[in-house]
Amino acid sequence: EKLRVELGHLVREAMDAATDPESPDFLNFAQGMQPIVDTAFLAHAILRAPNTLWHDLEGRVKANLAAAMKSSRTRKPGFNNWLLFAAMTETALGYMGEDWDHMRVDFALKQHEQWYLGDGMYGDGVDYHADYYNSFVIQPMLVDIIEHVQVHYEDWGKMRSNILKRAQRYA
Question: Judging by beta carbons within 10 Å of its beta carbon (0-12, 13-18, 19+), is residue 142 exposed, middle or buried?
């Protein structure tokens, strides 16, 4: 427990430095394409550990974090699993009580529905790629996004069952 508390404190300090525009450790959220990816993985972590990575943050850090995440909206995701990166960021912003773009979430969910290939596998875009993106991006992000957004629209709620069944089959 002592280690958990210590590590939680350290990660909150790191998040403060990473999202404070005046910090020399401020991260890039808005230049190039990589911020789409990096912001999504940060957003995913917030959704999976909300007490440590969101609720326990100081108000100033929460505001900086939200502003940094929103600044990644200037980046256009590729027409592949990157749609989920944009959707994950928006899902976390919604969880955080911020304004969030429902269309980015809707497009990612519906497009991945189109890319479902069967037997628990999604294509990574129009064509199937034999890589590991189903393991560490597509399946976990689809599951966590749908768990948080299913209540907002009836069609999203109806997607939940298939997304979970497919993730179980894939696993």
Answer: buried
Q: Distance (Å, rounded) from C-alpha 111 to C-alpha 83?
A: 8
Q: Are 159 and 113 in contact, with CB atoms under 8 Å apart?
A: yes
Query: Above pLDDT 90, what percent of the chain?
Result: 94
pTM of the model: 0.95
Q: Rounded CA gap, 83 and 66, in Å?
A: 19
Q: CA–CA separation, 120 vs 146, rounded Å?
A: 16
From CA 36, how far away is CA 33, in angstroms rounded?
Answer: 6
